Here is the input.
Amino acid sequence: MPHYDVIIMGGGPAGATVGTLVKKYSPHLRVLLLEKAHFPRHHVGESLLAGASPVLNDMGVYDRINQYGFIEKSGATYVWGHDRQPWGFDFDRVVKPLLDRGIALPEMYSKGWQVRRSEYDYQLLLHAQEMGVEVRQGARVTHVRQDSTGSRVVGVDYRDEDGPASVDCTWLMDCTGQDALLGHALDNRQYSETMNNYALYGYWSGYQWHEQYMGHPRFTRIFLATSARGWFWCIPASDTVLSIGLVTNRQTLQSLKESSALDLYLSEIESCPEIMAILDGAQMTRLTPDQNRDLYVVQDWSYESTQKAGNGWAMAGDAAGFVDPILSSGVMIAHELGQKAAYAINSSFCATSDADIQRYWQFYEDTYRTYLHAYRQMAEFWYGNNFLMENWWWEAQRTINRTNALELNAGEAFMRLASGYAYRAESLSLFGSYPLEEAQQLVNGLFGVPYEAVDVRSQYAGKPLKLKANAQMGEGLYFFQGLVRKTRRVINSETQAYLDLHPAEEIVLRLLDGAHTLSDLDQVVSQIQAKQQRMPIRNGLDMLVQLDNLGVLA
Ligand SMILES: Cc1cc2nc3c(=O)[nH]c(=O)nc-3n(C[C@H](O)[C@H](O)[C@H](O)COP(=O)(O)OP(=O)(O)OC[C@H]3O[C@@H](n4cnc5c(N)ncnc54)[C@H](O)[C@@H]3O)c2cc1C
Here is the structure.
């Protein structure tokens, strides 16, 4: 039987990301991707967050997507509840504080697209293939095989146009989206009671462009507006076609009885003046030739697999969990966690012990949970409240500040979640997919704005510095440049909150002995940087503020 190092089931954004990044960083590994459909295939989920772009860059496909001709997305506009006054934000507001300081960040940090998923996903799959992934389309996985003791996944059975076939593997990735092959087989999916919605969506041509809702035709925004029984998304999916989706709850759909889903969809459009204004004179159409009906009805329940990795297997993307379309976060999470899964695979193949492999995948699970929960809390809050924007902002702030220990004002916190940068900094300085020096710029300059002010420096200047007794050292992990890497971690033993350190920062930490001051710290940092220009390391003040936030600075 043929054997592969890695088999990936499903070729959507998650599967293509895993395949590409395994081949990029471990080109010697044999990777097979089995996809049941023939691409290009229709898929919902056209509006991307800017937060996906750094992962596309890591995959080496950012330029290809950037130049493909998808419509550029700059942010989002909301008309929510009784107050029909539109409000919104642009992704570049997230990086503006850095630009104001003259720090040039690559444009990708503030760039997203509205995409036709059939074409977007196809480009990613082609790229994975060009990177050396063996891609088989029209190959549906029918069964996951385990060893004779039932304790380890060893391969899959699949069926394609040549009939049934079997392949063995060392590692299996489930990226089958909402089909969630492994999640169903293991029966380990938990569904949210509160977010059990349906989406009814179709495509429209001949509409009116309204700049206050949709942004500039070249720098578009996703537009979200409430209607009588739910809310609408409005996404310019091409130059001439809009994607208009209604999200409504199960009760509304169940109460339909005689009337059809199309009647509900059209009558809800009539109840929403802004969508009516946009669709003035428009007709329903189809977005791509592979689209097989005018109106789609999909259940967009929120769920999560209780276990996302095991002996010889893991899940990424919708196969592991799905939150809700409200924040347009699905594709970004598929990319982001697909990347982390690839890094964990790369590290597993060069690990020297089973214990290390287990730690990598536990770290992957923890990271995944953190991401999903951040977005789920926001979505639940959205549905569970009276849609007052101030409330939502406040919740975003609470969610982010709780784990990141950074002081953000409400607007910044919301923007960070809604742009996809919510939990990048979950271990504060070590930003996962970012090159650390860029990550550091983002953390220091943007999310740590308060300690930038001059009076913050004077707070520490000249003071002998010392760690409190509750500061403990431990070992942490972080995802960086293709691998899960070990790092040192400062832990507050009372709260268990922690700050991960870059190796060079341990030297700086040793200066917190009651005899040194901030200027000593800065001097050592300068010396390190003079030797190794690209060494990612916080300046003395940044380090102090983060340790202070952690509650370990005397
Ligand atoms: C109503 C709605 C609106 C949404 N809007 C947005 C949005 O605006 N922005 C956004 O970012 N996200 C949105 N999403 C979420 C987004 O569509 C998903 O999160 C994203 O597609 C996940 O990517 P994936 O690779 O995990 O799964 P998918 O893209 O679903 O890919 C899974 C692949 O696996 C294949 N597959 C399935 N079973 C098998 C099998 N047995 N064998 C082989 N192959 C198999 C499928 O054919 C498919 O190609 C929305 C979702 C819904 C429900």
